[in-house]
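Quick sanity check, 6-phospho-beta-glucosidase:
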Amino acid sequence: MTFPKGFLWGGATAANQLEGAYDVDGKGLSVADAMPGGKIRWGVLSSEDFDWSIDASKYVYPNHKGIDHYHRFKEDIALFAKMGFKCYRFSIAWTRIFPQGDELEPNEAGLAFYDNLIDECLKYGIEPVITISHYEMPLHLAKAYGGWKNRKLVGFYENFAKAVLTHFHQKVTYWMTFNEINSAFAMPALSQGMVGATGATDKQNVFQAWHHQFLASSLAVKIGHDLNPDLKIGCMIIYATTYSFDANPINQLATLQYNQAFNYFCADVQVRGEYPAYTDRLLKENGVQPLEMDEGDLALLKAYPVDYIGFSYYMSGVQNVTAEDSETVEGNILGGVKNPFLEASDWGWQIDPTGLRLALNDLYGRYQVPLFIVENGLGAYDTVEPDGSINDDYRIDYLAKHITAMGAAIEDGVDLIGYTPWGCIDLVSASTGEMSKRYGFIHVDLDDQIEGTGERRPKKSFKWYQKVIASNGEDLTND
């Protein structure tokens, strides 16, 4: 395998999952700060009774402390540099810049923190890759405005994007507008700030919110390109390669329609700059009336599509609508039917490196824009041995096989610009609100209640990934 010269090897995190310091230096509350930790998370967020109230007597809120990256970022960036990172994907916490979300002027302390973080990356030659909004919109916008179903959020996001792009564009080339924007198909709380009590179960609201996010994304592209045409501003989606369970045409059709609804819809609009031909059918199937649009909306989408596709790939899925008793498995936001040919992670996510090669070929063939794998990894229980070592050979095996698939896709002709495995340092899981679901090359001594020393300790995979980067992906051996 030969990876391109200048390939962006690195790692990925999100502000709300590692920074902590949730009420420090003027930061406001985000929706992530109101999400309880533990396996009850999804049930709480789906409840019609949940109104975004924070009740520390009832729930644990791991995001409040995270891994204290806010105060320890220099230590963490130094470890990333030791691994040889060429880039580091992180997000800017909206509420550090605009604590309530609807202010006119940014919080200077928030801008200063990210100035320091970016400068620390650049000191080591690490290219920052920034997600503008990653599952942490201001809680005030969710409670007072009802989340992204309200068109007023377009203006608030535009103000936020303008502030950070203007402030940081001379230091940062790579940006993404929203994290896993299509996650709202199953869980609008994360990216759209809507829960059961505020209309999350009504697909009318979800699709209307997407329209507003599409507009906001295009405005960010416009702002960025006006500042510097060479800025690269991408979208970011979940991609889950999806197979038909069998050759039954009904399952084949179900697979096509699933791909259109989940894997393609948001990217079709953001990359192609227009709603796809199947939109009317998709809206009708979901009981959605024609969306509210202002004059000029469609022209804005067409004029300012994104420059590249960032995407997460953890697993594949199976469509089987002809059987009522299919065995199911868990997944990233959406689970599905068990694939008998695949093994699964500790959390039931099906492991499918070949599916990543298929994903890369599918996305590049469909859109013909550069691709960036900005999340991929194995959430697992790690054991600290008596001598302090963490022998995560299972993680090395997972990543090596996926990197092999990436190399094969590049040989297929795919334009792949970088790879940032998720949770390069252990952090709070977005899907479960736990620390015990670990992804990192670096172990952090904290439990699910965020108790512990917080000590950073490289795992076996740390040295392995160091070797992978140094060899530009040629040496994947585990020795």
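Posting the structure with no commentary besides this: The first strand starts at residue 8 and ends at 12.
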